[in-house]
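Action item from last week, closing it out:
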Amino acid sequence: MRILKAQPEDLGVILALQYRAYRSEARLLNDDKIPPLMQTLGDVEKEYREGIVLKAVDEVGVIIGSVRAREEGDTLHIGKLMVLPELCITGYTCQDLFLQRRLLDSAWESLLTIAEETADVDALIFVGLPMRMNGKLYNVAAALNHGNILGFVPKTHIPNYNEFYEQRHFASGADVWTDVTVGEESIPFASNLIFSCEGLPELTVGAEICEDLWVPLPPSVNLAQGGAHIIVNLSASDEMVGKDSYRRDLVKGQSARLVCGYIYATAGEGESSQDLVFGGQNLIAENGTMLAEAKRFQNTVIYGEIDVQRLADERRRLSTYPASDDADCQIVPFDVEVEETFLTRKFAPYPFVPSVKEERDMRCEEILNIQAMGLKKRMSHIHCQKAMVGLSGGLDSTLALLVIARTFQLMGLPSENIRCITMPCFGTTDRTYQNACKLSQCLGAALTEVNIKEAVNIHFRDIGHDDSVHDVTYENCQARERTQILMDMANQEGALLVGTGDLSELALGWATYNGDHMSMYGVNASVPKTLVRHLVRYYADTCGEKELEEVLLDILDTPVSPELLPPKDGKIAQKTEDLVGPYELHDFYLYYMLRAGFEPDKIYRIACRTFEGTYDKATILKWLKIFYRRFFAQQFKRSCLPDGPKVGSVALSPRGDLRMPSDASAAVWMEALEKLEV
């Protein structure tokens, strides 16, 4: 037998084989009512387009089977962990047939057959069956690997309410801890088994069965505390109106509480419909995120990749997560080949920004409220009734002013107590200047113009700088002059100077030390640039004022720039992203470095996949190197940040989320990047 990649002309044959396989199962179980697979030729064609259909051919080239896999180069990647539903060998709805010796004998024989037939499958496989033990009958998940039965996990919580009457047939495995002899092997039988991969230490798997998840203290809690990073659930959960959302929330919630991957395989159309209908809502979740979900009533298989290393890192980061203690768990080793996984899961290109508009709008409203409440508390604490902001007509200062306006509404303060200072200089364009003026007017804020050209020129002469040399000194002198004016005028007015710098700029150190880097309270300090745009857009969409909406939309359409170099033909000459790179890439890097703890090569890999067609690999690697280099080199600026509210799970405050030495070396991170090949 040979395994080859399927061709378009093979797909009809493969589908026919799948139909026959289901009929074979019907004959094996002597049940002609088992329906065929609900997959269509269109479904198989879709899988083919995604590169996941392989064919098995005999010596003369006849197709004798198929398998779903991933192809990468010369390597084929087939699933390493397979989970089938509760009591799948017999069916969950056998009722009093579970009391028949012939059914139980047949189930055991089928298990041995399945083990034998999967000897060449490089995977840990869980199947469900009824199993006799010491005079009792148990609902069991059997773990198989390379033809061996590794262990039996009995169901702990046996429901006997409403439509369920399992106690009529099955005993609880809560207090059972024994061994089963199969041939010459002694196989553990217990609810606290953790299956541990010898080649990948973080790949540790525990199992529970259906109702076990629905109780106040599921067995998965003990399994996770014992070191299991993945929980599998073999289930037969019937359908009722609204039950699907509750089931989904249970799986997501348990994966979040336990910081684990959770694989939920439930019964589908093959079960009896005498009184119940089973929808086959298979689910794969990871730490509160749903990775894959089957469409109900279609009898489909789902695939996904769980990042066990990320789960292990996240548990280690959480100081309240208990240390792994396998004292109450029995470790059962298994083995699969460790190889590079071809990724099917998606990574959001904008991890700080929800993709669904309704959710994004809710997020924006929440963030604006967090920012405003933080500023409100600070102003109330110091008995301040005025706020000052440097208004450039750019995105960051616009957001800061919008936050101040909302704060003043909450405090019942007049808008004229908001002092906006615009400070045109060499790089200021008419567009940004006019937008600054219009914005302050729309919000009812007081606007003062202070032209800083002469002051900066005097400073150039004082320090002996040639004003024709447009270097870092030329730029930073302007930023520091603006900050000096803002600080001094805030003192004059008895106002709180509100900072405008955002999270992305802080990560890259794109701020002038003791210039725009400094303020009295930084409302944007934990808002990334990709999110700033959406916050301003949300304000424009919801303000209900046509003039304000128009100026905000024009600000959104203006290129991001510090405007520190003279314009060309009246237009902005200095575009930030041309100098430090695209913010969408940097925000992506920042999230997965700090929030996920990914290594540089891992970030590069997922960035290449996520931004394929937008940026080539060379560009992604170029800006990734710059990101790491700047992130480490610019920590000294973050070490003395002014206060500001945290709004998300990634923040850079030296007093909270990032306590990092200012002179930390980036060498080992850069070394990893230098080894990458484009």
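Closing note: The CA atoms of residues 439 and 551 lie 7 Å apart.
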